[in-house]
# Entry
Amino acid sequence: MKPVKPRDQQALVARLMDACGGAYKPKQRRKHYITGPQWAASYEGHALFHAPTRHAVPFETVIAEYEKIGIGYWCTHDTDVLTYDEVGKDAQWETVGRIRKSLKKHGLKCSMVTTETFHHAVFAGGPASESPEIREYAKFRMENTVAIGHELGAEFAVYWPGSLGYFTQGAVEEVQTLTWYAEGMNHACEADIRIAKEKGRPTLKHCMEAKPFEPQGEILLPTSDAMLTWINSGLLTHPEMVGLNPEYLHELMWGGAPRAALARALMAGKLWHFDINDGYRLKHDVDIAVGLVNPLDWLNVLVLLRSHGYNGPFNLDYKPPRTTSNWGVFAVSFPTAVDRFITLWEMAGELMADKVMQEASAALRAGGGPCDPRDATAIFEANKELLNLHELIAHRIFQLLVGAHRGRTYSTKK
Ligand code: GLT
Ligand code: MN
Ligand code: MN
# Structure
């Protein structure tokens, strides 16, 4: 193949995108509660060892592009759209007004707002560190984000306490720090109750997001389970207002089974918001787009969520790779991420209705029939052949994933 000149490259990528097929129409995409973060679309490709490969994108462009793709909801950190000097000032409300206009113009809604308490130097010791001034500042920021959320019509507020921890041991007393952090959350909930009342709106759903490592060396609330313990610790004045925003990769990062972590959140009635992406176990937060690493696991995750009636947002919290251009972010990255999610969602429905799956699951649950209830060997013998279905079910799910259940076979060379 001849070299592809820079001016011909977008056309080539666009033609191959078309050739991929399998794309949903914006209208079909909008039927799902899929939310697009400002920070994901605007991510410049930078990291500790990486210089940016793209430029930042203003919210007007992100919202306009999301409309074209069919992403119906937008979410943001306070400081994705405001400078530190603007937070809480008149300039903030001017920007919030422009965001409202932009959302209206493009038919999007703001689903969620989140307070950034990890980037600025003021949070070097975390958002609940020893100095009362720092904790007061964190409270101001959380309250302010709640106010912005109400102004934008958001339903959720997310908190990622990635800087709640330490690098070196000794100075940070864990119980005290978690208590101080709870005071911050109590402040946010109480402000929410007041503002919601003033505005005649329901209060926000406050969702905690855990990540096992990064950016602190040790994290005080590293998993969704740790957060459930904190929510139910008695430290919160409004535990009923606080739930979870698990992120698929963050549960995988510590070596857990995301599906089991989600199940525990469901059991506790706290699965309110879900960050969808992909990546690898026991590695850093690579935030790869949904389904590109673990499609089989993702299919199973969506079966769990569908069977338990999860109806919260699916938040595209991933990082378009550094190899993707500013043009590619909206031409390739977002539409393909959304479409893989919808495909897996539909597939999960197909799996649940699949006759082989249904009969196999029902047979396992029916068991092998009565026998001596105290005789382990007799019970095992009565169920032995049924237990083959565990492996058969896994095979069936693989078939559903690759389309082999529709009679598609792959030939081997003679
Ligand atoms: C940060 C983090 C994400 C969180 C964001 C919400 S901040 O980008 O890595 O997983 O969802 O604050
Ligand atoms: Mn996340
Ligand atoms: Mn992540």
User: Anything to note?
Assistant: Strands lie at 34-37, 73-77, 109-114, 156-159, 165-166, 205-208, 218-219, 242-244, 274-275, 314-315.
